[in-house]
Amino acid sequence: MNGRIPVVLPPVAGELFSSWIVRHAAFYGVPSLTMLCHCLPEAVSLHVADRTLSRDQANRLAEMFSTDAKTVLRMTFANVQSSVHRFISKEPLQRCSNCKSGPSDPGPILRSDMQGWRITCPHCCRPFQDIAQGDHSHPFDQYHAAALRGEKLLDDDAERGIQTWTRPLELARLLLMRRVPCPFPRNAELWRYRVLGVAIPDLDDVIAKEGSFSPSPKHPILPLHIRPALLAGVAIVERVGPEMLQMLQAHTFGHNRNRFIEETDHLINSAFGLPGPRQMQLI
Ligand SMILES: [Zn+2]
Question: Tell me: the pLDDT tens digits for 54-70?
Fold first, then answer.
């Protein structure tokens, strides 16, 4: 192949850039990375291209695929800040059964399949299905309305940089920090207690039943059936305001407490017109 791609497959609504390249590679019978490097010789992987495609690269791709750079960029996550990347999975997390064909034909991968802050399809608003676990129980159904509010807050922050009195994505990270439960549990299974459990009291029991819980501020993508708890937690804290962060500080301890204070004091102080962060102490 030289220059312009002779047969161009139109992207489906919301398709991920790498998925579009993979479909062209299958059409032309070449490996996916070969297809990408044919268009962008400097490309190192499809995953990196999804996240960091530049305007210049988009212009070159648009020329080869007889489309416009905006269409190419819209398929990538080039619009989001690098701090949002930790909320974007490397593999598809979820799918909308309404917008895709049957399981034997998974079809194109959409941007929204990778977004760790979503529980509903942005194209038809129906609930997503978990790709890895299939149908699952819904332990946080009672928080559905708050979870949808949280989803919108996080989506506005991630995709459009819209914030309220704080960054909702930062709230999500803070809520995943560990806490010390009160009263202190006899079994001392401290791994399962998160700050989020103060806002969503059902969380502790659900995590205990799961038997493990790996999400953290560094890896903040929750399994789809538990994700509504985090979204609802963000919506609750956002609605109550900085004084809730002040209350949550009291549920942390030791180094976690110092880190939590470090990351929340400036929000509380700016909301209440107080001076800078306090001196850290281990209590
Ligand atoms: Zn859908």
Answer: 999 999 999 999 999 99
